[in-house]
Amino acid sequence: MNPVLDIEIMRRRHLRAVMPIENVVYPRPWTMGVFTAELDLAKRGDRYYVVGTIDGTLVAYAGLLFTPDDAHVTNIAVDPEWQRRGIASELLLELCWKARERECQGLSLEVRVSNTAAQALYARFGFVPAGVRRKYYENVEDAIVMWCHDVSSPDFAHRLRAIENERSAHVARSTR
User: Fold this and answer.
1) Which of 54, 61, 153, 167 has the fewest CB neighbours in a 10 Å radius?
2) What does the pLDDT look like over 31-41, one tens digit per residue?
3) Active site residue 110
4) CA separation for the pair 99, 149 (Å, rounded)
């Protein structure tokens, strides 16, 4: 039987489990203070952060920043022991559905030029390259800026449902 992924709103109590993942996944990790400030903004509705747990263990997290018409993916991080099992796809589905719920028109994000796996994931969701931020990561590596337009359209909802129907066999999602 496949492990079951539960996705819930990130709370301060999750941060002790978020930080070890953050510190392993990112060369320049956010601090506890940054996450706390982001969660304060989430309380006001300006951000949306979720965590993914399997059998009560936090294995991933993701977030959105809202602007009046769009949303920006701030992060998607999966514990290295749980990568390549469809968890990032499930988190991105959650973020996309939230952006639609908020009637966002577009979604944006930055991704490392070297992270071709993430680029492929984002392309599957309809993100396309829109530019480059030179030396964005650690003042060394470029970032590809990617956009997904028409998030509120029926076509985008159809794309999300198709992705849900093609879910990975590695992990099951508890509910949606």
Assistant:
1) 153
2) 999 999 999 99
3) yes
4) 11
pLDDT digits (tens, 9 = 90+) for 72-116: 999 999 999 999 999 999 999 999 999 999 999 999 999 999 999
Question: Degrees (nearest 5) of the Cα angle 81, 136, 160?
Answer: 55
118-169 pLDDT, tens digit per residue, is 999 999 999 999 999 999 998 899 999 999 999 999 999 999 999 999 886 6
SS3 assignment, position 70: strand
What is the number of other CB atoms lying within 10 angstroms of the CB of residue 7?
21
Residues 6+ apart with CB under 8 A from 155: none
Of 52, 73, 61, nearest in space to 25 by CA: 61
Distance spanning both ends of the chain, measured CA to CA:
20
Q: Are 33 and 73 in contact (CB under 8 A)?
A: no
* Active-site choice (110, 136, 141, 164): 110
* 101 included as an active-site residue: no
pTM listed for this prediction: 0.94
Using DSSP bridges, classify how beta strands 106-112 and 70-78 pair: parallel, antiparallel or unpaired. parallel
